[in-house]
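User: Can you predict the 3D structure for this chain?
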Amino acid sequence: MRAVQVLTPTGPADVRIGDVPEPRPGPADVLISVESVGISFPDLLLSKGEYQLKPEPPFTLGVDVAGTVVAIGADADRPDLAPGDRVAGVVPYGGASERCVLPATWVFALPDTMSYDEGAALPLNYLTALFALEERGGLEAGETVLVHGAAGGVGTATLQVAKGLGARTIAVVSTPEKAAFARDAGADEVVLFDGFKDAVRDLTGGRGVDVVLDVVGGEAFTDSLRSLAPFGRLLVVGFAAGQGIPEVKVNRLLLANIDVRGVGWGGYAMVHPPYMRQQWARLLPMIESGAVRPPIGTTYPLEEFGRALADMEARRTLGKSVAHVH
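Assistant: Here is the predicted structure, written as structure tokens:
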């Protein structure tokens, strides 16, 4: 079967389609026929050998998947699933193939209102956003959330989940095109990156925001701290700017009564088996209400997975990009 392979971890240009054996599910697994694969930042890092997980090449990319159930292991404990059911799922890598195996606890029934593309856009980004805002950010209804990289996959997910939790959202983007995209995704307010600190101060009457979600890092970091209200929380999700990992002077935290908190959803969720399905249950009412509706950007054939990663690396993507398997 076809699969998106990393033969050498030298970046998107060297990602190739290979022929690999069809996987066999273990007793606690689900085998699915994949329709859509989300293009995820971990895929880009994996292709370059820069992710915290470093599988031995050759290996298959693909974190977010959506498709139909083919088989369910005898010990999977998923009486809610049957062959032919539409599902979404998430794996550390290995999903960008015609069929893939997932632990049963990482597979979720896909609502009838969601397409396969939307299903492949949900797990990593939306469960990360929910973990960041609820578990790490302690977000409460009525608070204000500032979202960097707000036109990207995690950014748009955070805007929608924050709204689903009753928060006000301010999107930070780099271009007018991305501003329009973030607004369509549900942002209450949108500001451009240049001068965002002053714009946020004006929008909040000088108070600042309660939570900042930062997937960008780099030069945004210090002004993000300065944008926090007292008892505000800055959530560190990633460093997409590629400008190195920022440092914080802890006296600033003390003087302003603010926090910097790391967000490592995968490191937590993948070692606490029931957690992902509990999160999915939290997302379902937001999906049903319409608060959560993943905005799909560019779609690619599976053979152009490498080009999709290159577009992500160049920050040309809006929303969640998706590769079609069939």
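The chain has eleven helices and 16 strands. The longest helix spans residues 275-289.
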